[in-house]
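hey
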């Protein structure tokens, strides 16, 4: 086994959602550097094309613009990713939305519905669609979902609904790890703390951001690329006996 962090990913097909966003972009780049074939998915078609055209490595990289909340299209998306990459061996499901409401009485049914639809419901049906393809291929696979420190702490900074959906992602991932374990399909979560992206800063005052930063023992927010290594590790040959886990990447803000 190679002792590079991406051991075993050479020539593998990797589907990365939310690939035009801060973390998703770095995850896609990391898989490409590990010589995987990256299929980048996001709703922002132009940003996807720019990303894919600049990915490193020898892989056959593709961009697919898609709205993950269109649940009926997810089986076709998984098959299209397999066809584009030659196989579908890894799902890195990074895509998410957050709508901050400082007053919980201001949370509307539409706020709830959008975050639940994208962050949890689409995650389940996409996980299932990808696992179906992996089962057909018959050689297992890796699914890495994104939680948030809010899955354990509950939401703050107006993110109660977002955190609730991420708690659902953890529970869902553990259930799917049990379901798909006999097929050699490993399902895990990466749980970021504060990552310096537009999502973190959207709707947060400077004072709230500083209070957040003060809770972090490392004294700073993570850069998006600091999450990529955790995702690549969980997809690599080094993590072949890890499933149902939640990898805490919070700079020590949470310790579990």
């Amino acid at each position: 086994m190679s002792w590079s962090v991406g051991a075993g990913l050479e020539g593998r097909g990797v589907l990365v959602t939310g690939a035009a966003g801060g973390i998703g972009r770095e995850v896609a780049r990391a898989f490409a550097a590990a010589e995987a074939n990256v299929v980048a998915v996001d709703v922002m078609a132009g940003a996807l094309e720019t990303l894919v055209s600049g990915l490193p490595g020898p892989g056959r990289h593709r961009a697919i613009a898609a709205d993950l909340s269109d649940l009926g299209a997810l089986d076709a998306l998984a098959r299209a990713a397999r066809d584009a990459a030659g196989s579908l061996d890894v799902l890195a499901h990074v895509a998410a939305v957050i709508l901050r409401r400082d007053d919980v009485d201001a949370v509307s049914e539409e706020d709830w519905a959008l975050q639940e639809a994208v962050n949890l419901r689409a995650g389940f049906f996409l996980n299932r669609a990808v696992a179906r393809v992996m089962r057909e291929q018959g050689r297992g696979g890796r699914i890495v979902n994104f939680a948030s420190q809010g899955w354990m702490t509950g939401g703050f900074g107006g993110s109660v609904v977002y955190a609730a959906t991420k708690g659902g992602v953890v529970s869902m991932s553990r259930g799917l790890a049990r379901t798909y374990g006999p097929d050699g399909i490993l399902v895990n979560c990466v749980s970021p703390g504060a990552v310096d992206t537009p999502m973190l800063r959207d709707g947060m005052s400077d004072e709230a951001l500083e209070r957040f930063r003060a809770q972090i023992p490392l004294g700073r927010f993570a850069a998006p690329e600091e999450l990529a290594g955790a995702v690549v590790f969980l997809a690599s040959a080094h993590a072949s006996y890890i499933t149902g886990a939640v990898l805490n990447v919070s700079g020590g803000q949470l310790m579990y």
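Strands lie at 13-17, 37-42, 62-65, 90-93, 141-146, 185-192, 246-249. The chain has one domain: 13-249.
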